[in-house]
Amino acid sequence: MKAIGIDLGGTHLRLAIVSERGHVRLSRKVVVGSNRSPEKIVKLISNQLKLLKKESNIKGRCAVGMGVPGIVSSRKGVVYASPYYPQWRNFTFAGKLRRKISYPVVIDNDANMIALGEMWKGAARGWDNFIMMTLGTGIGGALVINGKIFHGNNGFTGEVGHMVIERNGPSCACGSRGCFETLASATAMARMAREMGVKGLSGKKSKLTLELASLAGKGNKKAKRIFKEFGTNLGIGIASLVNVTGIQKIVLGGGLIGARSLFLSAVKKELKKRTYSKTFSDIEIRCAQLGDDAGILGSALTAFEKASRTAR
Amino acid sequence: MKAIGIDLGGTHLRLAIVSERGHVRLSRKVVVGSNRSPEKIVKLISNQLKLLKKESNIKGRCAVGMGVPGIVSSRKGVVYASPYYPQWRNFTFAGKLRRKISYPVVIDNDANMIALGEMWKGAARGWDNFIMMTLGTGIGGALVINGKIFHGNNGFTGEVGHMVIERNGPSCACGSRGCFETLASATAMARMAREMGVKGLSGKKSKLTLELASLAGKGNKKAKRIFKEFGTNLGIGIASLVNVTGIQKIVLGGGLIGARSLFLSAVKKELKKRTYSKTFSDIEIRCAQLGDDAGILGSALTAFEKASRTAR
After folding, report:
1. Helix, coil or strand: residue A226
2. Which of residues 233-252 of A touch B (CB under 8 A)?
3. What would the DSSP string read from start to end of A158-224?
């Protein structure tokens, strides 16, 4: 049996055929156009699937897993809302796609799929309980408990980025204030750079953290301070998560981990201050290893698991 | 089969015989003396157990469950540290007690036992996933997932009270700053009362929240503001927990819930601000129903479960 892992991002759609041992056999990556209606995306995926099948010549049973950015009920196969697909409201994505492609389909939040991918083949191998955080524009997060994504009361999953770490802190798009992701993300670093008046930046949003890292590497004090502050805030958030869950295993992923040498010591300093010594000594932080493949692999793993449950 | 549920507090030791249906048949309550060495406490419990057995005339199989304040590994039966029993360090409590009384013994953190008691016979009946918080001098907490206490990586459980909600907030005894329990507990209310110079208080620590509630009931503006601020902070912490875990079911217990009419609307206001509307509409807060019996019942339930696992 084969699985097709799909990773639907804000810009690209990636699909891959994955073996039961977790090898990516063949993959495709296309840009998602500007028409983002539910029907259009379902059609795009089904067309790409056809091309993938034709190219690979796969036969027999096949299952599909897909990671989607946004608020997703995996159990119901529904996307409630997505920052990149504003037209989607209570969209029964799994069901619609299944009817179109006649394979079983399972969906989940993209951060969850990434966590499962890292557990299967990456940084979290051998861990049953861990917290995954992806550091980028915001903070994505997943709780893995007993080897499974923990879905709360209604099939939803945690929004780690919207844990409050400064009750009267910066406004967050979610309506709250001082959320973790307003203080430990690329967005937070952009704000700090603005406030401090860092010189030598091109002003391109997508390049900001790379440019800051390069400045910091050259000894720029303000840039170094921004990474330190980022690390301190990240440490505060991780300490809270460790204290709340009793889980001391952490995987950090996302674009920002490339600059980890600039902030990891600040993270550890903060963790030492804010956890009991017994807890601190058990904390283990690993960096994600699979890059873009993590979501694909986690989606495929979810598809295999669903298929094996259905077959029983 | 019968279970003996034990609740070891900072001041009292309570023991009760509990039926498999969750009825408290007979109970004893004694003051814990000032000699609090491990040996002394084990002896106290075993003596009290003998008296209980004699009085009740129970025969046949029996299992013991006990809630202990502090950092406990339920899996290992070890108490690592306890605020009320400072001499206890890595104390293998379950093993020592078992040898003395020759019944199987299971221990866990007291807040966990309270959560299980409320699930079995109290406010959380019918809930598989919920967060329990006990509001008192600090904030005790438990995560119940799939009907079981969630124990993190090393058999520890969450320390909800040490989630940070204001990164540079008041110092906490744990070494951190701005922990949830520095801002939403009786201790926090005492600090606010001091800072605001509330008049008409006796100065007795144990009576402070009752006196404040009475003042607020009579229209005292400062006392009312303290309860509102407490509710706001409580709401911030609950919003964080809901966002992190995806669990929207909450049970509040502890001494302070008697004054809930003074703070629950502030809690709800804050939750509305700090969670997505879909999440907010699913939030359900219940108040604990069992008072002192919760810990006893949860301990007994844990004892029954351990006995049935062992018997298999």
Report:
1. helix
2. 233, 236-237, 239-241, 243-249
3. --GGGSBSBTT-SB-TTS-BSBHHHHSSHHHHHHHHHHHT-SS----GGGHHHHHHHHHHTT-HHHH
Residues of B in contact with A246 (CB under 8 A): 150-154, 156-159
State pTM to two decimals: 0.91
Strand ranges for chain B from DSSP E:
2-8, 12-18, 24-31, 62-68, 71-73, 78-81, 105-109, 130-135, 139-145, 148-149, 249-253, 284-287
Nearest-angstrom CA–CA distance, B136 and B253: 9
Per the structure block, which two tokens stand in for B68? 């202990």
Burial of B168 (0-12, 13-18, 19+ CB in 10 A): exposed
Q: Is A297 exposed, middle or buried (0-12, 13-18, 19+ CB in 10 A)?
A: buried
Across the interface, which of B167, B174, B246 has its CB nearest the CB of A152? B246
**Chain B partners of A151 at a C-beta cutoff of 8 Å?**
246
From the list A164, A246, A273, which residue is nearest B240 (CB)? A164
Which DSSP letter does residue A103 get? S
What's CA B212's distance to the chain center, in Å?
23
Taking residue A27's Cβ as centre, other Cβ atoms within 10 Å add up to 17
Distances (CA, A) of A8 to A109, A117, B52, B261, B298: 10, 15, 63, 47, 45
Model pLDDT for residues A215-265, shown as the tens digit of each residue: 999 999 999 999 999 999 999 999 999 999 999 999 999 989 999 999 999
